[in-house]
Amino acid sequence: MTARGSIAALMTCMAAAGAATPAMADAVPVGVPLDAVRTTLGVDVPHLATGVPVPVAGAPEAPRFHKGDMLPTPLLPAVPIGTELGNTLLTSPVPNLAGKPETDGEGSLDAPATTVRTRTPGLLVGSPLTMPDGSNYGLPNVKAPALGIIAPELTGTPEALLGLR
Q1: Are 108 and 91 in contact (CB under 8 A)?
Q2: With contact defined as beta carbons under 8 Å apart, do 156 and 129 qualify?
Q3: What is the DSSP letter of 73?
Q4: pTM
Q5: 147 near 124, Cβ under 8 Å?
Q6: Rounded CA separation 50/115 (Å)
Q7: Contact status, residue 128 vs residue 143, Cβ threshold 8 Å
Q8: Which of 19, 23, 147, 152 has a CA between 20 and 30 Å from the CA of residue 3?
């Protein structure tokens, strides 16, 4: 095998690896099996199908250094996390809506898929020492440390539709 052939094979593998994107599911579909209740109790049972969210963590906020501070801000960065709440469908038999067997119907609750984003809390900590002070023989002065918390966030627009037929 020549050096040129090795380089060509290596470049081909790198191009294939770069073009391949990882397949990641936003939500894993799940059907809840309730057929055992139907056979055991002999009653009509609801049907439930939903999706289990798969959280995906994003890149944390990079710490920043400010002039005069010894510690970066934020000390503990907030991490964004996003997921998709899967489509949820719940249907249930509703017997005798108007008091007659002919009026049997079915109720449903449908929640379409929606994206939810959150951000974990972060921590801000101030140093208990100042920068070196020339008037104090180059030693830092003691000061009261500051402490702060970056509030967590949750954003999304979940909705649901209730139906009867």
Answers
A1: yes
A2: no
A3: B
A4: 0.57
A5: yes
A6: 15
A7: yes
A8: 19
